[in-house]
Amino acid sequence: MSDIVAIENTNAYKNIVSDTKSTAGPYSNYDDVIQLKKAFEDAYTNHFQMIDSMYLTLSNGKEFDLHKDIVTRKVGIHLPEWMERYSGKERNYFWLNSYADHVFESSQPREVMSVYKVIGVRNLL
Question: Which residues, listed in sequence order, are joined to residue 114 by a DSSP beta bridge?
Answer without folding.
Answer: 96
